[in-house]
Each structure stands twice: as structure tokens, then as C-alpha cells.
Amino acid sequence: MLLETLEDSLSGSAKIGYDSRESASRRTANNTDRTTQTKGPMSTISTNTLYLVRHGENLANITKEFSYKLVDYSLTPKGVLQAEQTSIFLKDLPLDAIYASPLKRAAETGEIIARPHHLPVEIVEDFREINVGDLEKMAPTLENWNRYGQIYTAWANGHPEERFPGGENFLELIERSRRGLLTAIHERSNQRILIAAHGGIFIKLVNYFCREANAQPDYRLMHNCSITEIELTNNNGEMHGELRAWASISHLSGEAADVIELPPI
């Protein structure tokens, strides 16, 4: 698990630094580039490592506003600090590409992380936060957050057709998540890709594409600038993920590590 390797390296105890070039080359050799083409009808299987970084703190985290498109705040000073600490933590990780949601909090987080890598941040519309529809125009009251929770619970209980009024349902969310992932991994294999986006979409993405028992993440543990690591295999558009690390914040310290209260759902 690369995040654990990075933690060990930084602490000096064997818990995280990115794996060495030797380890990386050995892994590539063992996986034969992890791209397989079968004889007969063309079939391509590729595997990439994804780092899902939730954005740093923004005002909506404090006010509890619903924020899909109309509400779009930049990072707070604390959010900038969180992104900077994440950037320092990941600076020696050989990333191949960085993508971000178009919302300011995610795009700014991606830009800060990208600085030491000298990589562009590619904006992908499909990585936008869950479309809560009419809720975004309403006050962030307990009643309205309960409405949000009812839809979220319905999805978890096997009712993917339930939708946010004026927004999307689970099936639509997963389809655009899938499109976003296909954009990120297009013509890539055995690469490391970072995506800066949102807790809501990340949680459902991991739930859906990482179907093992260990892929039932607790949304209350996905804090600002937490890092989730998955290994994603794509077989001609059919994707399956293996969850390697969930919402790690061990790289944050001081004010950046102060956990903000989550919405009341």
C-alpha cells in the first residue's frame, strides 16, 4: 500500500514514502506493464493507481451549505494550509496526471498539489459534487439536511432510482463518475493519477467500484484533504477497484488537522 509506504518514509519508521524506483520497476516487471491484449477480438485490460484527494476547507464546510454548482467558494486559509501540507506530503510521489472537479475548492486544491510536480490540472466536469438539485437553493437547515440524508439512505438501501428533486439519482451519479474515471485513465496503464474532488462523489464511487467487504467506507471519516488510494482495473470499460487506503489524514498537522463538524445527517 503506497500511502503506508509514504507515511513510514516521512516518519523515518517504515510507514509512508513513495516506493523506491527499484520497487516501482520491479512491480512493473512483475505485472508486465499491467496491460494485456488477448488474441482474437481486441481486449485491453489496464490497471492504474488513483489517489482521491478531497478538497481543502471552504466556507460551505463551515456554513453547511449545499454546494453543487450555484454555491462555489474558494479555499479558506485553513483549506490552503491543508492543500499545502498535502502537496508537501505527495511531492516525491511520481504522479503522471492530476485531475480536478471544476468547483473552486477542488480546482484550487489540485493546483496547490500540482506545483512540485510541474503538471497541469485537467478539469473534468464529471467529477463535480453530487447534484442535490433544489436543495442547493435552500437554507442548510436540519430539516433540509434530513431530506438529503433520506435520499442518501435510500441509495444505500437498494433504491438507486430515488433522486434529489431537480437533481440526480444514484444511477446518474455512477454513470458520470464512470465517465470521469474513463477520462482520467484514457490510454494510461500502470500510472499514478490524482483526482481532487469531493467527499460525496468519492464515497459513492468507492462503494460502487470497490465491491469487496473492505470497501464500505465511513463517510464521517472523509475529512478535508484526506487521501484515498485505489487500484483501478479497466477491462474494455468495465471497471473494478481495490481499496488500498481510505481517507488518510496522517499527513495533516496543527490547524490543518483540526476536524470540522460534518453536516447533521
TrEMBL record:
CDD domains in the cross-refs: HP_PGM_like
InterPro entries, per database record: His_Pase_superF_clade-1 (IPR013078), His_PPase_superfam (IPR029033), PG/BPGM_mutase_AS (IPR001345), PGM_Phosphatase (IPR050275)
Sequence positions that bind substrate: 54-61, 105
Keywords: Glycolysis, Isomerase
Positions annotated as active site in the UniProt record: 55 (tele-phosphohistidine intermediate), 129 (proton donor/acceptor)
Biased composition annotated in UniProt, kind: Polar residues: 26-42
Name the record gives this protein: Phosphoglycerate mutase
